[in-house]
Amino acid sequence: MQALDMRLVKRMLRIFLVISIISITLLLVFTSTKDTLPSLKRLNPSYLILALVAVLFYIWFETLWLRILVWSVSGWMSLSGALEFILGGSFLTLVPFGIAGVPLQMYILHRENKLSIGESGSVLLVRSLLITLLLPIVLPVVYIYYSTILQQGFVVNIARYLLIAVGLGILILVLSSLSTNRTRAFMYKFAKTERARGIVEKITEELSNMKSTLREFFIRGKWKLPLAFLVACASRACFFFLPYPILKAIGLSPPLGQTMITQIVLSYLLLFAPTPGASGIAEGSGFLLFKSLCPEHLLGIFIVLWRFFSYYLLVILGGILLVRMVSVDKSERGK
Fold first, then answer.
1. CA-to-CA distance for 108 and 84, rounded, in angstroms?
2. CB burial class (10 A; 0-12, 13-18, 19+) of residue 156?
3. Distance, CA of 312 to CA of 321 (rounded, Å)
4. pLDDT given for residue 95 in this prediction
């Protein structure tokens, strides 16, 4: 767990806080009018409670379909381990592109179910593939009913970047695991020392483990994969529903379909934002896409509430869990 002590994570946290505070301050300054304060007096807390319930159901469904995936190749994962996996991963999205979350999640899978690096990698890969499978379902709906969202320049550019990055990453992983001999031969061209060749052998060994584990998903887990996908759909539905009760809480009556689709577009666009926790980009994108659903004098307040329930809360919970993990690991090493 020394990876959690990395200076990179702390530096990204500081940058995230600075950019988020600046973004929120600017939003509030430029959107607040004389109508903002009187409107806030009509805030309905019951809808904020509904938003919190949606977040809790989202977290629970996320842990459930992760546990079903792990069950496909191993034993049943504990709820506490699944929470650390999901929320710890959310906290470490403070490091752009989620690069810090992958080692943590592999560590948790090894600690909980004794999965090797290759086996853990296959779980992460299948999890990413199932999330990606949601795109063919939601994109036609977005295109048919709300194609104007996709026609905005910044949305098109980020979507193109996202599809290329995700597609290349998944393609490289799949091809590497399916053809381990060619992968070994390719990497040997750059391995000039005995130590380097040892690392190549270790990498190809884990790729072979990933390949065999992927096969297990489709043999032992042939009915568990569709079940995991259905639970993942339920999880994402809770998350996509989230802006609706927040808009209701500030006294608005937005169209449910347009609200959810706007959240869908934002969720996928922000996956690989290059700033810590998509700070700045999320607030700006939310402002541009939600302004058709929320009047300007309430837009800054809505963005703050939306970011809190959709991201800040997950980061806070993830940070608490990771601090607990570090303290437990230190106490165990001290025995």
1. 8
2. exposed
3. 14
4. 83
